[in-house]
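Sequence design from tokenized structure. All designs in this work follow the same two-part layout: the structure record, then the generated sequence. An example of the structure record is given first.
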């Protein structure tokens, strides 16, 4: 665009028809004539239909002008890109109620089936496989997470922690678990063990890859019902207390701290995940807010743009947090607190929705509890740039393109008037 504005020799011709070369310019460009019947469009054209042949370097300079326009159009195209939702159900048992989901070490997504009593696996191509051999209970599979041993670890309502290899071999552990504890969510800790919440037992549990279980409760508010759990950037595990209405933190030594200042009363915090900004982000099932807590315990809540409560949350490849909503939407929140919701492509009444996790394909994968499907929503991946460039909305990019185009036309007209008429072309 800057090169376009430097064409000092571009001037209108009032005595010739069609398109004419303008003396004094080195670009070999011609400009559309204007008179009382035809207004000057301000468009530039290569001199190809009459006069001397345009030299190669002159034509390349003209192409440079077009590239500036192409860049703007490209920006508009990127800004208008839409998120696409795809659903998969082939291979999934009827009424299985897919629950939580996690990325496995084999590049597939693994999920639990609450009612189907199976562990499911879905490839990024949408191929589903189910495993049940080795499961002793008929109901209640809940959380799932990848372990440090190349296997997936999961929780079961009836006081068991399970392990499944990528080959589908299942092992269950229960020794050391309090009866009626109801393990819910599970996450890998920095110590190589798996940490989990016990909803009814009001404890935080830890299990080694050898199956040794330890429980912690000191420092937990009574009947707080720990639910979601995630590893924080500070090397501690952070968890939600659904009915205690608090966010908890436990070190690998078992020291528990609770935070509630800044949290709306009776919000029922549910899922939790580490964000790209060094904070933990959580969803509120009844508070209809998305929460953020720093490792110092400072809580901020966001609600603008949110239409319902939410269940689970995960960090996406685009630097935002993605979450599942009670009323059947997929939500996205930036670290600045800007919320967007998506529902196009989702089966009607397919929710409430379950877990959500980032896949190896740059998309977010989620479970549809009532719809009995696994869903996928594409997310743009942020590409590194040499310098920080402000993000523009679709309309912002279009407005910028219009302003730059107008500025170019105005500058050409200004210089045309300043230069005045030229001698006839020969």
């Amino acid at each position: 665009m800057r090169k376009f504005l430097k064409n000092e020799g571009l001037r209108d011709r009032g005595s010739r028809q069609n398109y004419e070369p303008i003396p004094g310019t080195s670009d070999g460009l011609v400009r559309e004539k204007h008179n009382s019947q035809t207004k000057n469009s301000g468009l530039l054209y290569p001199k190809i239909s009459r006069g001397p042949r345009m030299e190669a370097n002159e034509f390349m300079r003209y192409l440079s002008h077009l590239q500036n326009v192409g860049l703007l159009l490209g920006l508009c195209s990127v800004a208008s890109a839409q998120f696409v939702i795809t659903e998969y159900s082939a291979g999934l048992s009827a009424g299985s109620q897919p629950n939580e989901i996690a990325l496995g070490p084999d590049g597939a997504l693994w999920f639990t089936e609450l009612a189907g009593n199976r562990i499911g696996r879905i490839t990024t191509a949408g191929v589903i496989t189910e495993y049940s051999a080795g499961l002793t209970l008929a109901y209640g599979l809940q959380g799932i997470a990848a372990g440090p041993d190349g296997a997936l670890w999961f929780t079961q309502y009836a006081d068991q922690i399970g392990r499944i290899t990528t080959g589908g071999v299942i092992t269950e552990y229960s020794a050391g678990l309090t009866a009626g504890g109801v393990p819910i969510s599970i996450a890998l800790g920095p110590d190589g063990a798996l940490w989990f919440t016990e909803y009814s037992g009001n404890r935080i549990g830890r299990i080694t890859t050898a199956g040794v279980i330890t429980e912690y409760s000191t420092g937990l508010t009574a009947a707080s019902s720990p639910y979601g759990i995630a590893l924080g950037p500070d090397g501690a595990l952070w968890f939600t207390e659904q009915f205690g209405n608090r966010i908890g933190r436990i070190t690998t030594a078992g020291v528990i701290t609770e935070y509630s200042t800044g949290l709306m009363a009776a919000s029922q915090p549910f899922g939790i995940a580490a964000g790209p900004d060094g904070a933990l982000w959580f969803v509120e099932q009844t508070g209809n807010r998305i929460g953020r807590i720093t490792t110092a315990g400072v809580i901020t809540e966001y609600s603008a743009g949110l239409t319902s409560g939410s269940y689970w949350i995960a960090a996406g490849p685009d630097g935002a947090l993605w979450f599942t909503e009670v009323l059947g939407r997929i939500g996205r929140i930036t670290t600045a607190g800007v919320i967007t919701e998506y529902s196009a492509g989702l089966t009607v009444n397919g929710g409430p929705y379950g877990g959500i996790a980032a896949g190896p394909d740059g998309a977010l994968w989620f479970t549809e509890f009532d719809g009995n499907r696994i869903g996928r929503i594409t997310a743009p991946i942020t590409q590194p740039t040499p310098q920080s460039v402000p993000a523009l909305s679709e309309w912002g990019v279009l407005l910028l393109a219009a302003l730059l185009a107008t500025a170019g036309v105005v500058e050409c007209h200004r210089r045309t008037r300043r230069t005045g008429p030229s001698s006839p072309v020969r």
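The CA atoms of residues 202 and 222 lie 7 Å apart. We note this feature because it recurs in several other targets discussed in the main text.
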